[in-house]
Amino acid sequence: MKKSKLKPGQKTPVSGQYAVVGPRGGNTGKEITSTKDNPLPPTSKKNQSYVLVDPTKNKSGKTDS
């Protein structure tokens, strides 16, 4: 399953931890936390994007969607 890349400023589809990835998909080692429907922050370098690595779970144990 290929993870979809999200651009800075794009609305967060699901609350959780997002990894910053480079233009060819390599992980930079940096992660951010974002909540659903909030814009993703700017990245430190040009052509970087975000991928979801750990969705937030609610009290029932289901992922927030």
Shape field: globular
Mean pLDDT: 87
**Approximate helicity band:** under 10%
User: How would a crystallographer describe the biggest sheet?
Assistant: 3 strands, antiparallel
Strand order of the largest sheet: 2-1-3
How far apart, in Å, are the first and last alpha carbons? 19 Å
Quaternary structure type: single chain
Q: Detail the poorly predicted runs.
A: none
- Beta-strand residue percentage: 25-35%
Structural category:
mainly beta
Q: What Rg is obtained from the alpha carbons, in whole angstroms?
A: 12 Å
Number of helices: 0
The beta-strand count equals: 3
Provide an overview of this structure.
The chain is mostly beta strands. The chain has a domain at 16-55. Helix content is 0%, strand content 32%. The chain has no helices and three strands. The protein has strands spanning 16-21, 27-34, 49-55. The chain has a three-stranded antiparallel β-sheet, with no helix packed on it. The radius of gyration is 12 Å and the shape is globular. The two termini are 19 Å apart. The model has no long low-confidence stretch (mean pLDDT 87).
What tags apply to this protein structure?
65 residues; mainly beta; 3-stranded antiparallel sheet; 3 strands; 0% helix; 32% strand; globular
The gist of it:
This protein has 65 residues and is an all-beta fold.
Secondary structure layout plus pairing:
Layout: E1 16-21, E2 27-34, E3 49-55
